[in-house]
């Protein structure tokens, strides 16, 4: 079992990273939607000082739609009108009046009421730079890799990156494009983790599952593609498929979300981790809980100990069933 955290303001100093590794962390994710490899050099240097041979996973932009740069976070209230001026061009061309926009893994919801992406706030919250955007029931033709992705891939060997996470994988062609880019950078040995985050990825995973090193069940955006009450069924179907193909898989998103603020997780969160392990997950990852949370070391400690408890329970009952 592998345990991954995410680099961020709460987890980028030497003492914290050493404590995280001491708690059982296997490696870390760097979210390139917020900052590139060159901009993260100081963090990466400290990471390798904490553990020279640690795993470093980079999470690319991929074919994901995101907000651009905002001058400052914007507090929005229900019913308020807001016109987006910082979205990818493809949305301005393809979104229609009546469409609904989900922002920041569905935390905010907007209804389009006029041209130029004039919207009404249906679910309020804080609008922040670089957060994910999805249009309910629609997909858009977006390239597999952005120029920023290609620039970062070219630096993989320089920074000791061990694996690449490709968001919103839709088909085998996406994996092919990534492999070409890795080969061009002389980094063809880098592991590929396919993030399954939309309906097309779920439906077509059987076509490309053998082409990747690991499958990532990324529940944040999957929870926008499917009703939340269906999400865990989709997660379990993906787990079954991975087991059938003997393909390692990771479960990620909101495993310990409450610990961004709280020192102790909820019972539902530890149950979620426990059941992911029983379903056969080969790795688990925390994101914001560690990157921006108040208790990053405690987060990793609960993640590892809960998973170890699940593995022990599983081993005990498998042994009992054997006899």
UniProtKB/TrEMBL annotation:
EC number(s) per entry: 2.7.1.40
From the record, give the transmembrane residue ranges.
none
Q: Which residues form the Pyruvate kinase barrel domain?
A: 5-298
List the molecular function annotations (GO) for this entry. Answer: ATP binding; kinase activity; magnesium ion binding; potassium ion binding; pyruvate kinase activity
The record, for InterPro entries, names: Pyr_Knase (IPR001697), Pyrv/PenolPyrv_kinase-like_dom (IPR015813), Pyrv_kinase-like_dom_sf (IPR040442), Pyrv_Knase-like_insert_dom_sf (IPR011037), Pyrv_Knase_brl (IPR015793), Pyrv_Knase_insert_dom_sf (IPR015806)
Q: Which reaction does it catalyse?
A: pyruvate + ATP = phosphoenolpyruvate + ADP + H(+)
Q: Which cofactor does it need?
A: K(+)
Q: Is Cell wall biogenesis/degradation included in the keywords of this UniProt record?
A: no
Family recorded in the similarity comment: Belongs to the pyruvate kinase family.
Query: Know the name of this protein?
Result: Pyruvate kinase
């Amino acid at each position: 079992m592998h345990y991954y955290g995410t680099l961020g303001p709460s987890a980028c100093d030497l003492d914290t990273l050493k404590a995280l590794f001491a708690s059982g962390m296997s490696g870390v994710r760097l979210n390139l939607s917020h900052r590139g490899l060159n901009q993260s050099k100081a963090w990466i240097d400290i990471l390798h000082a904490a553990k020279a041979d640690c795993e470093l996973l980079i999470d690319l932009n991929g074919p994901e739609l995101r907000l651009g740069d905002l001058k400052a976070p914007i507090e929005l209230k229900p019913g308020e009108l807001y016109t987006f001026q910082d979205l990818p061009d493809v949305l301005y061309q393809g979104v229609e009046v009546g469409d609904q926009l989900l922002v920041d893994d569905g935390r905010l919801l907007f209804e389009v009421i006029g041209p130029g992406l004039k919207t009404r706030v249906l679910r309020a919250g804080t609008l922040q730079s670089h957060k994910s955007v999805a249009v309910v029931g629609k997909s858009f033709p977006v390239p597999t890799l952005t120029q920023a992705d290609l620039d970062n891939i070219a630096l993989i060997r320089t920074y000791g990156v061990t694996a690449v996470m490709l968001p919103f994988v839709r088909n085998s062609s996406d994996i092919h494009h990534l492999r070409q880019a890795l080969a061009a950078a002389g980094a063809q040995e880098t592991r590929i983790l396919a993030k399954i985050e939309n309906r097309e990825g779920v439906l077509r995973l059987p076509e490309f599952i053998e082409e990747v090193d690991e499958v990532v069940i990324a529940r944040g955006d999957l929870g926008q593609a499917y009703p939340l009450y269906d999400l865990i069924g989709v997660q379990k179907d993906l787990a079954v498929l991975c087991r059938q193909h003997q393909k390692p898989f990771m479960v990620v998103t909101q495993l310990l979300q409450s610990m961004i603020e709280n020192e102790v997780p909820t019972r539902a969160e530890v149950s979620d981790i426990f059941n992911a392990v029983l379903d056969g997950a080969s790795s688990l990852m925390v994101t914001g809980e560690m990157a921006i949370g108040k208790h990053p070391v405690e987060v990793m400690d609960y993640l590892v100990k809960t998973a170890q408890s699940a593995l022990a329970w599983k081993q005990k009952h498998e042994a009992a069933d054997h006899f």
